[in-house]
Amino acid sequence: PIIVPSQDIILGLYYMSLEREKEHGEGMAFANVQEILLALGNGSVSLHAKVKARVATRDENGERVTRVIETTPGRAQLADLLPDNPNCSFELVNKLMTKKHVSDVIDHVYRHCGQKDTVIFCDRLMSLGFGQACDAGISFGIADLTTPDLKEKYVNEAEAEVKTFEQQYLDGLITQGEKYNKVVDVWSRCSDLVADEMMKGISTIREGEPINSVWMMAHSGARGSAAQIKQLAGMRGLMAKPSGEIIETPIISSFKEGLNVLEYFNSTHGARKGLADTALKTANSGYLTRRLVDVAQDCIVNIEDCGTSKGLTVRPVMNGSDVVETIYDRILGRIMAEDMVDLSTGEVIVAAGDMVTEEHAERIEEAGVDQALIRSALLCEAETGICGQCYGRDLARGTSVNIGEAVGVIAAQSIGEP
């Protein structure tokens, strides 16, 4: 969904959904969510304590039932905001809420409760997130950036390897190009090792100590990333020249330790390159969008169904042994060109001509199906433009595409400026 909270709101929601061991009030049992909120207000229980609560939910038939579940007072507060709908159960928010999880919850609420409830829910989520971020008092101090103890060892090992390559080059065993590639590889590896150690250090939760706030900011998805924290507390690593070539002497210091004159000079390359690239890229991306729109502007949804029997076979996108895009992502929201059958039971999961919903896609993945035949815009037989069945779901609304939608222009703009 396009409505996803950011920054402070995410940080607040992440903080309140944290769960910690041996907190004040751990093990308490509550009759309902209101009791938890009362106990929180009185200070009888901590926001992150593991507690048991009886929550009202609905069973498969939509009947109201109550169940006892393990949760934290913070998560109970979140659940209190959910719309009253059989599909919006407590389990939806009974986990650590990172930006991705918050986005999934909003998506779920929109799919099952409609637009009005979603807007009200998002508004209440915003107020709660800001309030919690304020109460949490999460700040950013230089002491939060811990440089790993093993950094010196990794740097010394890398320097020794680089010396070996220098010697091999002087002895004529390797060429200048080979030496350059090997040196860059060694420093990249060293930089990654330091970064991993540093992330391990700041993500460790110690009993009785507050959780590292920089880690919370990055892990929740509120602000910053591992790469940025690496420069602050690990080592800045390799820099690029304006030409795009990598300088083979890395910046070993982090911003916390401070850079020496040579390192600072080398890092100015990167800063200038970033600004120059930004200035030059803008014109190109605008021009690309313009040319794409020129090509695709006549692609409009003109009819409901062109009646073609053709389809496109899709499989998961692989890069070596890694899955880049799963079958779930490739078929979600598309129309099936033939019946999708579960080979083990012989049951039809999705009939031809039906749209693949989230539930269908999950079942297809569970059934271990590795390819599917779907309707595609490439094979549409509409005389002008494209038909609704070959296009599939309108991603902006989560429903079937409407006739008259300018899908060509939308596609062009999505590629030009994602």
Features of the shown structure:
single chain; 418 residues; mainly alpha; Enzyme I, Chain A, domain 2; Topoisomerase I, Chain A, domain 4; Molybdopterin biosynthesis moea protein, domain 2; 3 domains; 3-stranded mixed β-sheet; two-stranded parallel sheet
What does it look like?
The chain is mainly alpha-helical and 418 residues long. It folds into 3 domains: 8-136, RNA polymerase Rpb1, domain 3 (Enzyme I, Chain A, domain 2, Orthogonal Bundle), CATH 1.10.274; 142-272, RNA polymerase Rpb1 funnel domain (Topoisomerase I, Chain A, domain 4, Orthogonal Bundle); 301-416, Alpha-Beta Complex (Molybdopterin biosynthesis moea protein, domain 2). It is built from 13 helices and 13 strands. It has helices at 8-16, 33-42, 73-79, 99-136, 151-170, 176-203, 213-220, 226-233, 261-296, 327-331, 358-366, 388-391, 407-416, and strands at residues 29-30, 51-58, 64-71, 301-303, 312-314, 317-319, 322-325, 340-341, 348-350, 372-374, 386-387, 393-394, 399-400. It has a 3-stranded mixed β-sheet. A two-stranded parallel sheet has the order 4-11. Strand 6 and strand 7 form a beta hairpin. Helix 2 (33-42) packs across helix 3 and helix 5 runs antiparallel to helix 6. The radius of gyration is 27 Å and the shape is globular.
- How many helices in DSSP terms? 13
Strand order of the largest sheet: 1-2-3
Please, how many domains? 3
C-alpha termini separation:
15 Å
Structural class label? mainly alpha
The backbone outline, from C-alpha atoms, is globular
**β-strand amount:** 5-15%
> What series of H and E elements makes up the topology?
HEHEEHHHHHHHEEEEHEEHEEHEEH
Residue windows where pLDDT falls under 50 for at least 5 positions: none
CATH topology of the largest domain: Topoisomerase I, Chain A, domain 4
Average pLDDT for all residues: 88
CATH homolog superfamily of the largest domain: RNA polymerase Rpb1 funnel domain
Helix content: 40-55%
CATH architecture of the largest domain: Orthogonal Bundle
CATH class category label of the largest domain: Mainly Alpha
